[in-house]
Here is the input.
Amino acid sequence: MAARRAGAAWSYLVLASGSVVVVYPFLWMIATALKTPREIFELHFWPHAPTLANFHDVLLHSQFPRWFGNSLLVALVTTASVAFFDSLTGYTLAKLRFPGRGVIFTVILSTLMIPTEMLVIPWYTMSAWFGWIDTYWGIMFPGLMSAFGVFLMRQFMTGVPDELLDAGRIDGVSEFGLFTRIALPLVRPALAALCIFTFLGNWNAFLWPLVVVQTSDMRTLPVGIALFSGEAGSAWHLIMAASALGALPVLAVFVLLQRQIIEGIVLSGLRS
Amino acid sequence: MTPPVRPRGMRLAARQALWAYAFLAAPMAFFLTIRLAPAAAALIISLHRWNILSPEKPFVGLANFREVWTDPLFWQAAGNTLRYAVVGIPAQLAGGLVVALLLQRITRFRGLFRAIYFLPFVTPIVAASWVWQWLYSPQFGPLTRILDALGLPTQAFLRSPHEALYAITAMVVWEYLGFQVVIFLAGLQAIPRVYYEAAAMDGADGLRAFRHITLPLLNPTLVFSVVYGTILYLQLFTQVLNMTFGDPGGPLGATETMVLYVYQQGFQHFRMGPAASATVLLFGAILLITFVQLRVFQTRVEY
Here is the structure.
């Protein structure tokens, strides 16, 4: 018993030390963001007189609010599109019988293996042809559907009982109605997980937006923060304020929905 | 109950097929034009001299591949990318497993710890990369202060050709550790308790139970983690570009990755042909490595 207690104490100790290491970069970010320009090159960790001036500067003198809005728009539209089309596709592949079903599923699944960077050059060429460079559509179009989501939703849609769908058919529910009114509500947890994953992925997307965006107006938040920081030189108080402004809203949402987000990510992670 | 009459059944089947095709029309168009066709286009571009501005795009055979193949920077990028993976994935797996096992042994604050370790995973990568760049500052960063306090010499970290790659790997491990922890926790929870009880009755200690029960039964989780991690590390880009922003690829190309190489070739030097052929090579490498991993790991233990 005593040995077990000692073991538990050790576990807490190791976990707590690890947590300090994990959290330290966040504290360093916030401490720097609250310092005056001169103070960032001094030795103490925490600012003597914390100031919000850096946040004020970033918000006022960069296009930060606009970048934030761009990212929000891009992430929301792509997430809504993925949620709708991926669940509809997953439902169709799992629950409707039709010739070519296996082939279509294989084709969609095979695209999972293609890495993004292989597509970036053709997407860019395509965008140049169609005039999509530096537009919202240009940033969004590659993310409007995801093969991973189709795969995930098909897995969960398979569990929807056929009897329920047949009963709906007898009651005269349309095929689309069967999807929206019977199947979708039954896979809500999986759909939520897919939405979280997709939103995070698009909110974080960097390589493609960096390539397709050319004016400051159209930057997404990651591209904005990167180029802003690149131009800021050694103004680390501003760079950390911008990083904090980029990170804190996401972290706040995470703290609020912590359990759902982690469980959703496990749910979708393990199914793949 | 009378069985449905055949013609009516046929009509229903045809109707359902029509609905299915209607539902799949947009997704099929998407996956064909935005995924498959561009993948084929990458292959085509890799065989041409592809200047975005010039209308002439002559076929050049394997010239782009030859160019990339003989570029020392490409091989440096390939070697670095493998080093990131070989150092980062074991560190991430070992760290994740230790934290998950410890979390299983405690009763209080489990959710809190899990959330803390998960924080970096939901933090925007670009923001985190800049924080870590500042953390590694040789003049003003806290790591330098710690070394100072311990009486150790100052390190250049991101500015050292020997340390930069490991400094970035540490950041990537920090970022994905919490994800690895929750994946392991889910895997550990799926192992039936009775195995451990039986082992305890047979007098097996904790270490042997771990070797003979936990590890083998965790195999599917390990395979998933290794394959997922490999795909992640082979495509490393955002962290590297942002942590060595002024000097992308780091001192003497020490942190250059395959994707960064592609980005520089294609979008900074506007050499789309060589860039595309590098992506084709990377694609081949990812396929090959994933295939080998699945073969090796999946045949090892099957219960």
User: Anything to note?
Assistant: Residues 71-300 of chain B form a domain with the MetI-like fold fold (CATH 1.10.3720.10). Chain B touches chain A through 92 residues (CB under 8 Å). The first helix of chain B runs from residue 6 to 46.
